[in-house]
Amino acid sequence: MSANEDRQRAASTRTAWLLSAPALVVLILAASGPLLIVLVYSFLSPGDYTGVQRPFTLEAWQSILFTRDIFDGTLQLADAHLSIFWRSVKLSLLTTAITFAVGFPTAWFIATRPAKSRALWLFLITIPFWTNLLIRTVAINEVIRNEGVINTLLIRAGLIDQPLRIIYTDTAVLIGMAYVYLPLMVLPLFAAIDRFDMKLLEAGYDLYASRLQVLRRVILPLVKPGIVAGSILVFIPSLGAYVTPRVLGGGKNMMIGNFIELQFGQGRNWPLGAALSMTLLVIVTVALLVYVRAANRDRSHG
Amino acid sequence: MKKLLSATALLLASASLAGAEGVLNLYNWGNYTSPELLKKFEEETGIKVTVTDYDSNDTALAKVAAGGSGFDLVVPSANYVPIFVEKGLIRELDLTRLANHGNIAPEWVDVPWDKGRKFTIPWQWGSTGIAVNTSVYKGDPNTSAVFLQVPDELKGKINVVPEMNDIVNLAIMFVGGEPCTEDTEVLKKARDALLAAKPDWLSMDYGATEKMSNNDWAASVNWNGSSMRIRLANPDVVFGFPREGYPLFMDSVALLSDAKNVEEAYKFLDFIMIPENAAMISSFARYANGIAGSEAFMPEDMKTAPEVVVPEEFRAAGRFLPTCSPKATEYVTAIWTELQK
Amino acid sequence: MAERAFSATRLPGFATVAIVVFLALYAPIITLVVFSFNDANSVAVWGGLSWRWYQVAWENTLVKEAAVRSLIIATSAALIATTVATMAALGTTRRAAFRGQTAIYVIINQPLMVPEIVTAVALLIFFAWIKVATGYQGLGYLIAAHSAFCIPFAYLPIRARLEGMDLSLETAAADLYATPWQAFRRVTLPLLAPGIIAGAMLAFVISLDDVVITEFVKSGGQDTLPTYMLGQIRRAVTPDVNAISTALLALTVILLTAFFLLTRKRD
Prior knowledge:
The complex is a heterotrimer.
Chain A: H1 2-41, E1 45-46, E2 52-53, H2 59-65, E3 66-68, E4 75-77, H3 79-111, H4 115-126, H5 133-144, H6 149-156, H7 170-194, H8 199-206, H9 211-222, H10 224-239, H11 243-249, H12 256-264, H13 270-301
Antiparallel strand pairs in A: 1-2, 3-4
Chain B: H1 2-16, E1 23-29, H2 35-45, E2 48-54, H3 57-66, E3 73-74, H4 81-86, E4 110-111, E5 114-115, E6 120-133, H5 145-148, E7 158-159, H6 164-174, H7 184-197, E8 201-203, H8 208-213, E9 219-223, H9 224-233, E10 237-240, E11 246-255, H10 262-271, H11 275-285, H12 300-303, H13 312-315, E12 318-320, H14 326-340
Parallel strand pairs in B: 1-2, 1-3, 7-8, 7-9, 11-12
Antiparallel strand pairs in B: 3-11, 4-5, 6-9, 6-10, 6-11
Chain C: H1 2-9, H2 14-36, H3 52-59, H4 61-92, H5 101-113, H6 116-134, H7 140-162, H8 168-175, H9 180-209, H10 212-217, H11 225-232, H12 240-266
Helix pairs in contact in C: 2-12, 3-12, 4-7, 4-9, 5-7, 7-9, 8-9
């Protein structure tokens, strides 16, 4: 019996690997594999004008946390790096929360349409994203700027006499980010809600649960995989966002994405750029694993 | 689907044709190459030019340095030319094959980055200055104080382009230093000036051509060609040349060492040194070129444009940024990081 | 039936939020469409109604070719990414924990975890070796790179759908002597379809939007719409890009309408 079980388990593992193999091959050839080059670069010295050169050194890694002051040469905590990093994390968390707050009702709305029109609503969500990110951001700018569509309408309607100042504020950035990343939240949520058996709701109500109770006790636990997927897809890419913060927020402060790009571009410090990205990769991987483990544990308990 | 497949096949095939006769791969800044110029070149020589865009010198340098880029010609800025030469990425031109080489205006032949124009042929040049809407601010626009000691009328209404080298070096020149300086006293003053001015800035973004035409910004550190376009849309806008010193740039065409279409490249280089053709380049992107006699073929509005024809009194203040040493780059990057943290 | 669906699935305020979201989603798009008919030389100052930017865009072979190239790459990448992601999701979901599961999960999601510029630099160096060694400079590199970073976007919705999907139907199919392939084709795949559609659409729009990786990987004459626009940022974005975007939107809407009419007929 036990030998049989072992054989079954081995077969299952083999199938898992076989099915995953094509995806892994593509990823290792065109994404993860080449990253090893970046890892090696993080231990080299900056090339004179571009790229890297010998000798091997840990300087790039050290300068993530400690920088030598350019004026007095003392080693100090790199507060610039930390504040850039913290700003990106804060913005991404807020963006994830907002896209979830508006994305969940939207996904629910779509999933509860008649089967025939569901695909149509799904497409309606994605159509705006057929236009390029920059064009879309410029269009949002056109809507919210001081002489833009919203302010013009409100002033003409006599509701306000001074334009509302939205552009170049944190609100503008959050509006823009939520807009840009909305489908990344709505589509996974939809995929999870759509397989949900609506009879469970009925059962909940039959037991005299309130709507809020049904939402908390029945709906949210069941669509959790969708929430996990959506949050990952929104949170991580928004960490690297910079077009939207610049166009709508005014771009006076860097995001982690700009900062890393600066090192590979005009800053000409590829090793630091490489070390920063590797750090980001490790932090995000750990956070992701903890998050997914926690989500899985919840489910197995309840 | 079938159509899509055949289109894919066509694209794949046309990409692999590069290197065959009668084609040329030009790697240039985006929105910088006149389509009429390419059309005329094709009509005269039968050579089809494929243009591919880049958006920064560093991207172009990184791609070319990595190898296998497949481009024939590249258009780096003045301070990047020595890097391309030193790394052996571009080749010395055989001037005997360029009959029109003598058309290069005398002041653009013995340039610091390429003495005698042995490696590069002028494309366009311009300057970084300050565009000011005079209906908001009536003071003197010809000073970096407009963005480094922002006048009250412009507080919260001025934009600064996020170009590290331009901005930090404007500040260095404003406090009396030399571009790419390694003098820490000067650098400290420049940093303090930038940090003190930043709260008065509205934003740090590109797009002045739009944002000043529609009054979103009342002033912006900006390039002269773009400022000319703004003035045509919004006559209140003037372009100031900071008298404390402002950066000049010149982008020049160079032949890559691993170019496959060398014959065609020479024909193109010779072609753009004919004044009439150089004028086509300028009238498209709105920057001056370096070819003598091309003014005669320029559109009327450019011949007299105050942004393009630099007034005599401000000419000396214009400086080509040298190729900064790695040490100087480290300083500039550190200041920029502190400014944008 | 209708009454039950109405009362049980209705959550107060949800429909209102959804409608507001749809309106907000389309407000900028409508602005964009309106401005594509602008006569002025600017994307931001209104100067009267005109077709001229459509003519300009039509005559601008660069922007036309870039748009077609973007569509070809996005379609190919979405097809490849969705196929391999579906297989991987079937392989890694609904299975007892096995050795290497975490490794697979990390590799699949890795493109999400590093900023684009890093993948871009890595690919620039790696593909340059291959370009020099083989001499091949075609679109293959871009399609491979796009397929790779689209995989997590396709994988996560499919996995979310698969997780906890009712196993009983498949078991029932097996009990009725369906081969594993038949069970998959007739039972699992239709149940999985919404996840696959969601994943494919995400992959498609993500590929369509990519700029940094494309900028570093592209060879001569391989500008896509986003890299073409990136090149314009420092000068001025010309309104013909609005016209192209509107044309693309119109094309989408026409294709979708045709698709719906056709599938409805078949029903």
